Amino acid sequence: MLRRTVVTLAAAAALAGAAAAPASALLPGGGAVPPAKADSLSFTVRDSTDRAMNGSFTLDCHPSGGSHPDAAAACDAIDKAARKGTDLFAPVAEDAECTMVYGGPVTARVQGTWHGKPVDARFDRSNGCEIYRWNALVPALPEAA
């Protein structure tokens, strides 16, 4: 019984070490696959005055990459806004008092994962609260003209 316990503990230690190893170390044959990105978002932007930002693009952060026109600056903007302690992707509260300022017809949908949490957010510029929320993510989202 003691011997079986020792083997079980050794097997548990080996599994714990394997779990901590990078994904590429676990592949047979030495093939290297990069670990999954924890911060990966896809954007769909419509009706922006910045035509280069209309359409769909991806943004990977830590390290920055993807098809976003300025991935490094976009990641920096999201990181900066996140440090303020608010949920960047949460909708405006229903009871929020917002100025009735219209910022144009541009809309965006952001989906993916940020800091290990799923994201599915919609953005527009329909009032002061939404404009503030949008501007916090520029240049990840296009700057409104």
Q: In total, how many beta strands?
A: 4
Residue stretches low in confidence (pLDDT < 50, at least 5 long) are 1-35
The amount of beta strand, in percent, is 15-25%
Order of helices and strands: HEEHEEH
Distance between the termini: 74 Å
- Compute the average pLDDT: 79
Question: Which sequence of strands runs across the widest sheet?
Answer: 2-1-3-4
Instruction: Profile the largest sheet.
Output: 4 strands, antiparallel
Number of helices: 3
C-alpha geometry: globular
CA radius of gyration is 21 Å
Tell me the structural class: alpha+beta
| Portion in helices | 25-40%
Topology overview:
Blueprint: H1 2-20, E1 39-46, E2 55-61, H2 71-82, E3 107-114, E4 117-124, H3 128-135
Antiparallel strand pairs: 1-2, 1-3, 3-4
